[in-house]
Amino acid sequence: MSESAVRIGLVLPDVMGTYGDSGNSVVMRQRLRLRGIDAEVVEITLNDAVPAELDLYTLGGAEDYAQRLATRHLLRYPGLQQAAARGAPVLAICAAIQVLGHWYETSSGERVEGVGLLDVTTSPQGERTIGEVVSEPLLAGLSQRLTGFENHRGGTVLGDGARPLARVVSGAGNRAGDGIDGAVQGSVVATYLHGPCLARNPELADHLLSQVVGELAALEIDEVEQLRRERLAAPRRH
Ligand code: GLN
Questions:
Q1: What pLDDT is attached to residue 56?
Q2: CA-CA distance, 156 to 182, in Å (whole number)?
Q3: 70 CB less than 6 Å from ligand 1?
Q4: Model confidence pTM above 0.90
Q5: How far, in Å, from the CA of 48 to the mean position of ligand 1?
Q6: How many other CB atoms are found less than 10 A from the CB of residue 12?
Q7: Which of 154, 167, 173, 174 shows its CA 20 to 30 Å from the CA of 145?
C-alpha cells in the first residue's frame, strides 16, 4: 500500500454489520482499485479508539443490544465526529442512522443518547418493517433509483437540520407511512437500505468516493447492472 492510499474506515464491524453491511467498504475499495486508485479498508473494532484522520467512514446495521455498545464506544472515542466536522464522508446504514441521531428508543422503550451527528430521533414503530425498498434519490448528483433491503423496528423522524436521502417508491424507509428514506446532513449520508447498499447502488458509492478523490471515470460492470435490474424488479414480484 502506498502512503497515498485512500483509507476507508469500517466502523465497529464486530457489533454493527448485519446483512453484509461491511461489504460497503469492500465495494468502495474495489471501485477505487478498478480505476487504478490505491485504497485500503481500516477496521475499527471495540478494541480500538476511533481514528479521526481516515478519508471516509462507513457503519452498518445492528441489533438493539449491539448498537448500544457501538453508541457508547463512539461517544467515548469521538474520532468519527471530528472527521465529520472536517467534512469526511460518512455512510451510515440502518441502526447507524439511529446511533448517529440525538437519541433512539429501543424496542423495549429505553431511550439511549446518540452521537448527535444527525438531527434525527427514533422511536419503535407499531410493527417491524421488513422487505425490499425502492426509492427515488433527492440528493443532488444522484439520478438512479436506490434499491435495498430493510428490517427495522425503529421509526426515524428528521428535524430541520437533516434532509431525506430519498422518496420511497415501495417499502417503508424511515418510518412506515412517511414516504422518505434516510438522512443527509453535512458529510453524513444515512439510509435504512441494506444489501449491501453500495453493491446495489454504485452511483451512491461513487458520489461518496468522488468527494475524496475528485471526479471518477465511469465504470461499466455487467454483474452490477444485472443485480440492479433484478433487485429493482423484486418488490413487484412480492
Ligand atoms: N435494531 C434496530 C431496529 O430494529 C436496527 C436494525 C438494523 O440495523 N437492521 O430498529
A1: 98
A2: 9
A3: no
A4: yes
A5: 23
A6: 27
A7: 154
Residue 237 phi/psi, 5-degree rounding, is -80, -20
Q: Produce one character per residue of 164-198: b if its CB has 16 or more CB atoms within 10 Å, e if not.
A: bbbebbbbbbbbeeeebbbbbbebbbbbbbbbbbb
> What secondary structure letter does DSSP report for 70?
H
Residues of the chain with pLDDT under 70: 1-3, 237-238
**Under DSSP, is residue 8 helix (H, G, I), strand (E, B) or coil?**
strand
Alpha carbon distance 98, 104 (integer Å): 6
The answer to whether the beta carbons of residues 35 and 2 sit under 8 Å apart is no
Residue 53: helix, strand or coil by DSSP?
Answer: coil
- Tell me the three cell numbers of residue 190: 444515512
Q: Mind telling me the catalytic residues?
A: 94, 194
Q: How far apart are CA 106 and CA 126, in angstroms?
A: 12
Distance (Å) from CA 59 to ligand 1 centroid: 13
Residues in the chain: 238
One-letter amino acid of 76: R
95 CB near ligand 1 (under 6 Å): yes
